[in-house]
């Protein structure tokens, strides 16, 4: 099978949008990017990012803030965008994704404000003080196809080739570390290289840190803000997520994405509901 | 002078809003909360947070995402809010702040999506792994009235009683540490205790980390997302801000706010433009 490429891949097909009229895009939410039959939040973000990239005069997401309202399911969807402001180096837009309920009403799934620019126009001075995560080499990490099969539908995992740091995968065998960390190598199963849109998916693609904290159950995202800081180099990404503030029934997940050139290409933080114990 | 209180203070008067019609609030941007004659981003966020708190069925900001479009100046402003979704424990709203230009057109200054809940209804289990910042006792920290007066108008500093960690104030005497940190004790000059709305100001009130990196000039905020995790206890707050990814003409600032009860009451991250050298 020929290796997929940016523009021709499962991710591109899954996040494809069709212009219906200025600012309005039709999409088909794919059953291939779900967890427990709910569309993954990062997948939705990438799809909406594509729509805003088409609607706005600047090409690349720089800061994307999303508030999740109701769960999205596979099937038709429409993205309605609004141009909020266009500037010389940055533009800002807003987008909402809707799906039609059985009674015919449109129900909003998530709402996004995002500021876009041109990543390739940025100066190349890099004074990043942060260091890449300490994660073992890819071949020493654990594929998501190892261990007991997850309960229920995790179809998105079939699209990805993630390999999790053994230090953060104890939960899969009943021995969570309790630290609230998750680290993994991230690639697409079909070999597609990363790009700014796929980074929007990557920040929300790993198992939740709640697993490493010994909690059972998923952590629905309330809000997710992602910064895209550089076009990622080809090749595998390293993702490191930490939770330091599990309290009052909520937790935050801080994600960093590093590319093969050791650039910190994306940073995100989400607020999520902790599972009820 | 009687100590100010929540509801009767410079901060409350400066962020006051008046309902004009459902969802629409008039405000007067105060010259007392500016830096270089531009309204401080956290001040604007707090003002808009107050409007959304009135418009939405839930009382307290949980996650507030703001994209800054054009600088705001002292004078009249209008906040237009939209209720996006109301749920049992969370509601989501959107708000825009406008000022009228000389030609009579409304110009949007910033746009916010925010999810609100009831902080007092949260369970009190706290498993926060993060630790309060290592900052010297308040009396060993440096008031902002010490050292050479800042160039230009910094009126907001008169409303605050900030005391900066000596380790992060070297820039004021030409010796920045180069680390990209800023730490300070935060109080209001009139003694008002903190509350969820004032936390929205606090996360953007400290001098920019760019000073500690040895950069000259301000770092305009592109986007700022704040999580409010707990109603703060009365008394001084400790604020710790770090920048780890200065690259390509942008930088992020991660802020943590800790209250007198050692709770991590707020976390934020902003994307800002680095000063041109």
From TrEMBL, chains A, B:
Domain Acyl-CoA thioesterase-like C-terminal: 149-272
Gene3D superfamilies assigned: Acyl-CoA thioesterase, double hotdog domain
Any Pfam family: 4HBT_3
Residues of the Acyl-CoA thioesterase-like N-terminal HotDog domain: 30-116
PANTHER family to which the protein is assigned, alphabetical: CHROMOSOME 23, WHOLE GENOME SHOTGUN SEQUENCE, THIOESTERASE DOMAIN-CONTAINING PROTEIN
UniProt name for this protein: TesB-like acyl-CoA thioesterase 3
Annotated source species: Streptomyces scopuliridis RB72
UniProt lineage: Bacteria, Bacillati, Actinomycetota, Actinomycetes, Kitasatosporales
